[in-house]
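dumping this here so i dont lose it
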């Protein structure tokens, strides 16, 4: 795991990490949902995308075997993980719970 990734997930704000790939159809469906979530949560949470093809070491260290895979971190700890497309209501509720 890269040091910068550790730094990103170590804050006291929730960080939603989207492991994605440019060739992935479901990832393309997830992207606008994440944009909407980002607009609604503002600066109460961070949402970052990690391209598994450009960052294979990070993806491998997190045992990401399929995309999209979403993970939620707070204070450096993973508190939620799901593979596949997640809907806006689920993600907003999750971020609300952990802010």
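and the seq i came up w/
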């Amino acid at each position: 795991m890269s040091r910068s990734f550790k730094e990103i997930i170590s804050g006291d704000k929730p960080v939603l990490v989207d492991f994605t790939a440019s060739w992935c159809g479901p990832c393309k469906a997830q992207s606008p949902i994440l944009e909407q979530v980002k607009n609604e949560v503002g600066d109460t949470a961070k949402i970052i995308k990690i391209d598994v093809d450009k960052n294979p070491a990070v993806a491998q260290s997190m045992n990401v075997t399929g995309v999209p895979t979403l993970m939620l971190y707070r204070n450096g700890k993973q508190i939620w993980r799901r593979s596949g497309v997640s809907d806006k209501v689920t993600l907003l509720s999750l971020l609300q719970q952990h802010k």
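The CA atoms of residues 30 and 85 lie 6 Å apart.
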